[in-house]
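ok trying again, last paste got cut off:
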Amino acid sequence: VLAVASSPKSGPDLRLIPLEGGAPRVLRGAGATPRHLALAPGLTAASSSDGAIRLWRDADAPAATLRQHGRAVTALAVSADGQLLAAGTPDGQAWLYDASTAELACVIQA
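nice, full thing came through this time. structure:
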């Protein structure tokens, strides 16, 4: 379990703080203001106010930036195994990405 911290003073970074103690992990390059966060073992995904979704693996810099959905993200989820990422958009669509390749898998219409 983690606590998440973001601050305009820290710039485009996210801090993941273990609730059970330990050093925070700083994720660099979160972009504009972070909006949503999804976690799975070995994968962290965050959407931001610029509409992008950024994926981090074990590194502190984003492994991929997703923009195919072309609009704001209103919900973000990742499968328990970290292989599938779902992004909801204001028009009711669900954009499913293969998180290991950052490729768009399909779009589900509401």
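cool. The mean pLDDT is 84. DSSP finds no helices and eleven strands in the chain.
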